[in-house]
Amino acid sequence: MGNPLHLSLKIGPVVPLPVPKFMIEALEDVTVTHQAGQPSGFQMRFKIHSKSDLNTILLIAAGQNTSVGTPPLRALFTITLNGRARPIFDGVVSNVEVQPGEQGQPGMVTVTGDDLAKVMDLIDFSGLPYPAMPIAARVALIISKYAAFGMIPVPIPELFVDVPIPIDRIPAHQGTDLDYIRELARQVGYVFYIEPGEAPGTNIAYFGPEVKIGPAQRALNIDMDAFTNVENMSFSFDPTKGVLPVVLVQNPQTRVPIPIPIPNLNPLQPPLAALPTPIANLKVLKDTARMNPMQAISRGLAEAKTSQDSVTASGTLDVLRYGDILKARRLVGVRGAGVVYDGLYYVSRVTSKLKRGMFSQDFALTRNGLISITPKVPA
Question: How do beta strands 84-99 and 107-115 pair?
């Protein structure tokens, strides 16, 4: 792809290598999706003909990819935009689909894959003990096994630390590494995801609270003449979205459940709007009665943070006009939509679509209310 946009593709087991020239020439398009709360993935399509070596190479590689003891086939995508190289996805191949050509037309090979969390979902380690280890230490130990894939563990200790006493109980691993970490994240109201680092081949394995603070990305401009960089954008407001979770904590002596309402008072997710989401109903979390108070409060905070985003927006971005790559799980400013919908939003999903000479991104944004509390956003 020509200046100022260039795509680099590397494929290989564990340590990916640059693909040969004929693969780049056959590459038709690439789609990459990053989504908060959901697994990320990619898809790339190659144009082939009946005598193409590409068809055989990809099918053999996919077959080896599913063999026991064989490392997964890794794919690394790096974008160079305006002279700056940044990895946009690092994952493993999960499926290869071939569509033969007809009536003299070339065929198509479609390769799909998942993020590197997939390599953590291959082996069941059930029963492995973790004596006297807090959750953050367990997560760091598990992720360290995947250093060969460039994973850098970033576990954040939970707000209400619960260190198990060995004479009382010893936590044991349940399921695969991915299953176990996701269950731990659910228990304390955290999120777990893997995203590319700043250097190609490195990946940040984040285990911690969902953060909605920090510097905002370059603004998305709507209906601003020459400054417009969004092709289309729409907004939605759901006044029934607000929920006040109520956790039940059981008194160990009387066995009587005590209801405790959990307001959304998370310093890592401050209000982004002057008119917050109204509380429309209560949600009693009955499963917290079996937890200790610290676990129950963490569970309530997790529910509170997901039930306040009453404002959503979606649209399509022209990256070349935008001049940068929009990232998921970050803040971004919106301008030109009017007083009610302008301001800062949280980017919940970004789908990047690349073809020769074109780079667009479909995005989804969320916010916990109407009317911006910031008079200006980064341009």
Answer: antiparallel
Residue-wise pLDDT for 220-241, tens only, equals 999 888 889 999 999 999 888 7
139 in Cβ contact with 154 (< 8 Å): no
Q: Which domain holds residue 148?
A: 123-208
| Separation of alpha carbons 263 and 284, rounded Å | 13
Assess whether 318 and 252 both reside in one domain. Answer: yes
CB neighbours of residue 24 within 10 Å:
14
Cβ 301 vs Cβ 242: under 8 Å: no
Q: Which two tokens stand for residue 10?
A: 């590397």
pLDDT in tens, 254-282: 777 788 777 766 666 788 888 887 777 77
Q: What percent of the chain has pLDDT over 70?
A: 88
> Which among 224, 204, 228, 89 is positioned nearest to 156, based on CA atoms?
204
Q: What does pTM read for this prediction?
A: 0.86
Strand ranges inside 54-190, DSSP E: 73-81, 84-99, 107-115, 151-155
- CATH number for the domain spanning 37: value is 2.40.10
Looking at this protein, which amino acid is placed at residue 23? M
